[in-house]
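job 3f2a | input accepted
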Amino acid sequence: MSNAPIVLGLDVGTQSLRAALVDLDGKTVAYGVEPIETTYPRPAWAEQRPADWWAAAKSATRKALAAGGVSPDRVVAIGLDCTACTVVACDADGEPLRPALLWMDQRAFREADEISATGDPVLRYVSGRVSPEWMLPKALWLKRNEPEVFDRAARVVECTDWMMHRLTGAWTLSLNHLAVKWNYARPDGGWPLAMIAAVGLHDLPSKWPSEIVPLGKGEATLSATAAADLGLKAGTPVAQGGIDAYLGMLGLGATGDGDVALIVGSSTCHLAQTREGVFGSGAGGCYPDATVEGLYTIEAGQTATGSILDWYRRHFAGREQAEADARGVNVYTVLDEKAAAVPPGSEGLVVREDWQGNRSPYKNPQARGAIVGLSLAHGPGHVFRALYEATAMGTRHILDDCSQHGLKVERVFIGGGGAKSPLWLKIHADVLQKPVHLTREGESCALGSAMCAAVAAGAYPDFDAAAEAMVAIERVVEPDPSNASAYDDLFARHVDLYGRLNDPA
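job 3f2a | predicted structure (505 res):
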């Protein structure tokens, strides 16, 4: 049995917690997975029980240790990523006073409007508006609607902060979360105290831990209590945790100036690293020191990407499903084959992918999707390819918009569900006219947490070095220059269609 050192990445997602045991070359030794329940008490509300996070961490970690035959002595450090912004109100010992408000919870929309209306200069980092998902709106909602909880709370923190406390016994704040979801901006002096006071939250900062730690840094170690729960060794270094998608960006190796990561699932999160701030674009935010100190992280997104493909599968792919069942293959294999037989541009079809609104660059939740140009000559392959092309066009629009405001796109990395389709990847490379990089490990968030752990253990001096050693580029999908003209034309029609659908005048 090997005695080589192992790092543990804990990935606390919306639906489950994944514990990944990873060696210092970035290869996964074993996984453990446990589901996490979400409740929806009212429309637009979403909650989870913090106790469930810890129970899942205990079970998943022990599963991974058993599956990999790994002794606790081999685990040299722990990393952590969580959803954001999932807000916990608790006492000084970390005992929750109510269920946590999950990141997708939208109840604080009025509070978000009020905070945005202050016009505080710090809002330039978030393109002028805060989201109801974020810390300040949710804290303000708690203060106004559950004052007894707010007043009793010694701590109002995030899932990551709470989990770090359970792991180490100490209270810290993640600079990654603060820069992205808390309106904290180092270049402007840190906390936006004037904006906080303007909406009546002057007593909130006293409920925040005072120690702010950059991603992957810190001197925290695993407490004896947590070690007994997880089946690990007390005193094991614990790296400061952060936001799951941002750790996913690290897990894809996108650590340098000009690197862009696409984290693809039901939606797509676009994250880019840049040395200079990018302001005035349609991106969701420009966050200093959020991931790599000295760089800004640009965040944008498409609300519906994988979900529109699933929508098509559920409602219109009955024949393809039957064929897939008969052949013993996945239905997307059949759909991809039909789409691959269609030329670029889908013979005139144009799709707006705004099934659930437009997150970037228009920030229009009322936008809706459309399939335009249908004729009797079109079939399922045309429509499915057009959906693929639409998701790529949305990404191109976001990157073009950011580029016009100073972002330089040097390398594109893709992780998540989209990376499983060779056709989807080829279309993205052709639409962007950029090589698309694919990595060996599919669980990029867990790997990113493991990379943080490796840096905390002293195996590597920084994220660049960790990425060089632990992230393996499995293949690169090169763009086909002969398709550039067709996709330039389609892109112009894709942008024009948004205006026609959303500006009747």
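job 3f2a | The first helix runs from residue 50 to 68.
job 3f2a | closed
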